């Protein structure tokens, strides 16, 4: 996976994160105390929510060591005094996640084409770390609240960069199948508003 392309996508999407954060907030009953964001595109949504939710803490789980090393410089403009002491970055594979002794009220994974495996093992890992009453928001897309103007400005470049990474397209049905193989079919809702997302709840 090309680290420079991942970093370029993360920077390109800075105007998109607030819209996705707003969409996620529409699915919870109260702001989360503990947030986990997982995968190579982690940072933007979680840090946006951290700045909006003063009681929250954030764990960023990255599977690529180079992204761990560059995280402070990549996200410098978002790491202000509002959240400087309320986040941590950990290095871990996605399956299994090596995070132990903690569960999370909200788990985010954007860029679903990189984690949808045939056995659903990564989705299972996200659910394992979810607190009762919490939600997983996983998938991909610009979100329902991102303006058409913003999307128009970055869509072509985003598409080019994602295909350079080897982006794999998937359907609603394939997403449903992955959730079923993860044993989550009865606890997940797949939505196609602003992309393709699964909202997974632990009752």
Summed up, what is this model?
With 203 residues, the chain is α/β, with parallel strands linked by helices.
Domain unit count:
1
Uncertain residue ranges: none
Distance between the termini: 36 Å
What proportion of the residues form beta strands (DSSP E)? 15-25%
Compute the CA-based radius of gyration: 16 Å
CATH superfamily: Vaccinia Virus protein VP39
Q: Into which percent range does the helicity of residues fall?
A: 25-40%
Q: Please provide the count of β strands.
A: 7
For this structure, what is the CATH class? Alpha Beta
Can you walk me through this structure?
The chain is globular, with a radius of gyration of 16 Å. It has 203 residues and is an alpha/beta fold. α2 crosses α3 (44-52). Strands 3-2-1-4-5-7-6 form a seven-stranded mixed sheet, sandwiched between helices. It has one domain (3-201): Rossmann fold, CATH 3.40.50. The protein is built from seven helices and seven strands, in the order ααβαβαββαβααββ. 36% of the residues lie in helices and 22% in strands.
Characteristics of this structure?
203 residues; alpha/beta; Rossmann fold; globular
Fold blueprint:
Blueprint: H1 3-12, H2 17-25, E1 34-38, H3 44-52, E2 57-62, H4 65-74, E3 87-91, E4 104-110, H5 121-128, E5 130-140, H6 148-164, H7 172-181, E6 188-191, E7 196-201
Parallel strand pairs: 1-2, 1-4, 2-3, 4-5
Antiparallel strand pairs: 5-7, 6-7
